[in-house]
Each structure stands twice: as C-alpha cells, then as structure tokens.
Amino acid sequence: MTRRERTVIIVCAVFMAIALFAFFMSSGDRKKEEVIAFFDDNNAMLLETARQLTDGTITPKSAVKKICRSTDVEKDHITISDKKSLDIYLGGFGIVPAGADYGLVYLPTNNMKDFQWWTDEHKPYTKEGKGYYTDDGTDNSIYLEELKDHWYYYYVTF
C-alpha cells in the first residue's frame, strides 16, 4: 500500500467517524420530534386511556389493546407497571454499550422514580433545560421532559 493510499484511507475513516458522531448527537432531537408528533396525533385517546387506567375503569390489558387498535404501536412495546405508569416505546438504535431507546411515558404521580428504567443506582434527577436528567455513574442515563399533564418524552441510553 502506498503512502497516498494510506492517507486517503485515514482521511476517509476520520470523515466517517465525524459524520457518525454528528448523526448520533443530533438523533435525540429528531426522536423527540417523533414522540411529540405521536403524542399530538393521539392526544385525546392517550389522555382518556391514562385517566381510565388511573381510576381503575380499564384494566392494563384493555389499555394496551386500546392503544394498539388506535395506533401502529405493537403490544410488546407497551409496558404498564404496578404503579400504573404507562411506557410506550417508540424506537431505539444501537447496541449495548452504545444504545438508546426513546418514547412516551405516563407517570400518574409525576414521580420520575416510577419510570421503568429507574434503578436505585441512579443519582437523583437534576433539572437540565426543559427536562430532567439522571445517570448511574456509567454509560446509563435517563432524560425525561414533561409534555403535558404527567406525560413525558423519554430518552434512555445504555
């Protein structure tokens, strides 16, 4: 391999690394826009389902069916905790240890520790911009931003 060929390969590798870094750094904003659009498009149904789930007039299983019928979300992408928090996974990318998930979560008590990704290793949430951020001291982090009345956009890295 000639010196020129090595230089071209190195320049291309550096360019690709910069492009990938820029893509992953900006993807969180694009994902947030997707989540907000999903929430806006399904707002009435989601608010009604959350209210019914909280007051016990609908079972978790029925809530999942209702959301699946009204949207293109698969039932495996909806989690309802025993505390009646409702997590709708809308996407993700990467693999461990450089992955991320994003979606929408309903927290009836507004207690961010009720979010399914929270563990006791996480530090207390701190205000960051419009939302709240926490990490566990490793590459695992959670960002939550309230959209409306107990509904949050989430972005989780692991």
Brief digest:
By secondary structure, the protein is α+β, with helices and mostly antiparallel strands. It has 3 helices and 7 strands; from the N terminus they run αααβββββββ. Helices cover 40% and strands 26% of the residues.
Report mean pLDDT, rounded to a whole number. Answer: 83
Measured by DSSP, the beta-strand proportion falls in 25-35%
| Count of helical regions | 3
Termini, distance in Å? 39 Å
Radius of gyration (Å)? 19 Å
What pattern of helices and strands is seen along the backbone?
A: HHHEEEEEEE
Report the count of strand segments.
Answer: 7
Q: Identify the overall geometry.
A: globular
Largest sheet: 7 strands, antiparallel
Percentage of residues assigned to helices: 25-40%
Q: Going across the major beta sheet, what is the strand order? A: 1-2-3-7-6-5-4
Output the structural class: alpha+beta
Write the layout of secondary structure elements.
Blueprint: H1 3-41, H2 43-55, H3 60-70, E1 78-80, E2 86-93, E3 100-106, E4 126-128, E5 131-135, E6 141-148, E7 151-157
Antiparallel strand pairs: 1-2, 2-3, 3-7, 4-5, 5-6, 6-7
Helix pairs in contact: 2-3
Keywords:
alpha+beta; 3 helices; 7 strands; 158 residues; 40% helix; single chain
Q: What does it look like?
A:
The chain has 3 helices and 7 strands. It is α+β, with helices and mostly antiparallel strands. It has a 7-stranded antiparallel beta sheet, with helices on one face. Strand 4 (126-128) and strand 5 form a beta hairpin. Mean pLDDT is 83; it is low at 14-28.
